[in-house]
Design goal:
With 78 residues, this protein is of the alpha+beta class. It is built from three helices and two strands; from the N terminus they run H-E-H-H-E. The longest helix has 20 residues. It is elongated, with a radius of gyration of 17 Å.
């Protein structure tokens, strides 16, 4: 079984998870005003731009690296 796992292709996962704003509180699940929706969309757009700027994250992982996970909100060297 281990030999089979050693030959799986590398995978890169780019996480872009919405970060709740301090002022949102518990309302983020049911507040759909035009203002809040624009804020959410802008946040996603900015996260996408920041992620795509990281060209090194878009490269295929080297053989044997397994699964690489990158998160724009937890980047350390940017």
């Amino acid at each position: 079984m281990r030999d089979h796992l050693a030959h799986l292709p590398g995978i890169t996962i780019l996480q872009m998870i919405y970060q709740q704003k301090i002022y949102e509180g518990d309302s983020k699940d049911h507040e759909f005003s035009a203002t809040s929706m624009r804020e959410h969309w802008l946040s996603g757009y900015e996260d996408t731009k920041r992620t795509l700027m990281r060209r090194d994250w878009l490269a295929m992982p080297q053989d044997g690296m397994g699964i690489l996970v990158h998160d724009v909100h937890r980047e350390r060297d940017y």
